[in-house]
Design brief:
It contains 6 helices and no strands. Helix 2 runs antiparallel to helix 3 and helix 5 packs antiparallel against helix 6. The chain starts with a helix and ends with a helix. The longest helix has 20 residues. The chain is mainly alpha-helical and 132 residues long.
Length: 132
């Protein structure tokens, strides 16, 4: 009887782990590089535009960091997009913002960095329109 229960438990665990692993993409990115990039740009613009004394500033910052990580995990090793100018510019912007959030989590993003990020976001959008 003990052998039966241990096998049943093992089977149940395999089914549960299998179903949880197959429950869809955890990163919520569509796989469409162009659309995903534009969505990330919009999320980051909202995070940068939120006032420094906003009550939900920490949540907005956490969401931005999550999106940065999801984007990097999804596209970093994708050779079809890693050579695009929009991707390299986007990674530069993401690395800059992620570096600030990691080094200075309680400080607001400096105006100089915000201006540079906005400039890079515009370059990414222009490159995406060109198809590169």
């Amino acid at each position: 009887m003990k052998r039966y229960w241990s096998r049943l438990l093992a089977l149940v665990l395999v089914v549960v782990i299998g179903l949880t692993g197959c429950s869809g993409a955890p990163d919520k990115l569509t796989g469409d590089y162009r659309q995903d990039t534009l969505n990330i740009v919009n999320v980051l613009r909202e995070a940068l535009a939120s006032p420094d004394d906003a009550a939900d500033k920490a949540a907005v910052q956490a969401e931005a960091r999550k999106k940065i990580n999801e984007f990097a995990a999804r596209y970093q090793r994708n050779t079809s997009v890693s050579g695009l100018s929009s991707f390299t510019t986007m990674r530069t912007a993401l690395n800059s913002l992620a570096g600030h959030y990691s080094s200075y989590p309680n400080r607001p993003v400096p105006e100089k960095l915000k201006n540079r990020l906005e400039k890079e976001f515009k370059q990414v959008e222009a490159a995406l329109k060109r198809g590169s």
